[in-house]
Design a protein that fits this description.
The chain has 303 residues and is an alpha/beta fold. The chain is 41% helix and 22% strand. A hairpin with a 2-residue loop joins strand 10 and strand 11. Helix 4 runs parallel beside helix 6, helix 5 packs across helix 6 and helix 6 packs parallel to helix 7. It starts with a strand and ends with a helix. It binds adenosine-5'-triphosphate and magnesium ion (MG). The site of magnesium ion has 4 residues, from helix 1.
């Protein structure tokens, strides 16, 4: 697809609208989205707003796996028009990770989950072993390759699914709320793996979540969805300061961003850039607290 500036355009969604068969309302309307190579785009929105439907459309499950649905507009993915391209062709370029990892397991051993797709593609044995080692390292599953996917933790399960998608070397990976059923440690591990995949391997990521904290860490773009429409897109630093917008669609900002905006309202002189992560807040606030303490100490010495 055409290059815009330095970065190649991989996905272009143009005025896309979608209606499920037999329903009255359009579930998606006027969706426009550009995704460039190497982007990490988070899609944020309340339950039922249409995030999963959009993911299905991006991989071609919509319209190919549904009869009698209605569409408007177009979706281009890696130079393919989804409407006109078989899912099997699209899936060579785009991998998908769903919320429930177990639904994606096909084997009784973790290792087989990773190599299954590679064997299907007829790759030579040495190549399969090389990819298996590489992927295990990236998603941190080297120690569980002999286990059953059904006896490992939720976070490990999800990393196995991500590994099996990664093994097929897609250009884009779409993750639809992959952490929603995990504890905080599992969430952190998944985010670390996805971060590596994006930053070290340069794979483009589309990440669906309710959690602004998760979106804040890695995204260079967030797209806010409300009732089937994108109501705002931009870098988290541009979008997150709009507290009203988030309140209106029932999504909580990261607590550190709320703290920043609250302190700013109270007139505290803060760094111009809002905090998106705890680390940023700690650094800036430590300086402010130090200077306040110095002020208090010097005032005390005057008396
Ligand atoms: N197969 C279907 N047929 C008819 N309506 C559907 C179908 N699947 C989803 N919907 C409806 O489409 C709307 C959007 O659903 P979707 O699953 O895309 O939302 P979501 O943003 O992913 O929600 P969640 O955060 O809960 O996963 C909802 O109103 C849902 O009820
Ligand atoms: Mg969903």
């Amino acid at each position: 697809m055409s290059k815009e500036g330095e970065k190649e355009l991989l996905i272009r969604v143009e005025n896309f609208g979608f209606k499920y068969p037999g329903t009255r309302d359009w579930v998606l309307q006027d969706i426009n989205l550009d995704v460039h190579r190497g982007d990490f785009v988070s899609i944020l929105g309340e339950s039922g707003c249409g995030k999963s439907t959009l993911c299905r459309a991006l991989v071609g499950l919509i319209p190919h796996s549904l009869k009698y649905c209605e569409l408007k507009g177009k979706i281009h993915v890696c130079d393919m028009l989804t409407e006109e391209t078989p899912i099997t062709t699209i899936s060579k370029k785009v991998g998908m990770v769903f919320q429930d990892p177990e639904a994606q397991f096909m084997s009784l051993k973790v290792e087989d989950e990773i190599v299954f797709g590679l064997e299907n593609r007829g790759l030579p044995e040495e190549e399969i072993t090389r990819i298996l080692n590489e992927v295990s390292e990236t998603v941190g599953i080297g120690g569980i390759l002999e286990k059953s996917p059904f006896e490992i933790s939720g976070g490990e399960k999800q990393r196995v699914v991500i590994g099996s998608v990664l093994a097929l070397k897609p250009e884009i990976i779409i993750l639809d709320e992959p952490t929603s059923e995990l504890d905080p440690i599992g969430r952190k591990e998944i985010l670390a793996s996805i971060g590596k995949i994006n930053q070290e391997l340069g794979i483009t990521i589309i990440y669906v979540t309710h959690e602004t904290e998760e979106a804040a860490y890695l995204s260079n773009k967030v797209a806010l969805m409300d009732q089937g429409r994108f109501i705002r897109q931009g870098h988290p630093l541009e979008v997150f300061p709009d507290q009203e917008l988030f309140k209106n669609i029932g999504i909580r900002l990261p607590q550190v961003t709320e703290l920043y905006l609250e302190l700013q309202k109270r007139g505290l002189q803060l760094n111009d850039i809002p905090y998106l992560t705890l680390e940023e807040a700690e650094e800036d606030l430590a300086d402010i607290i130090d200077s306040k303490l110095r002020e208090v100490n010097s005032n005390e010495q005057l008396y």
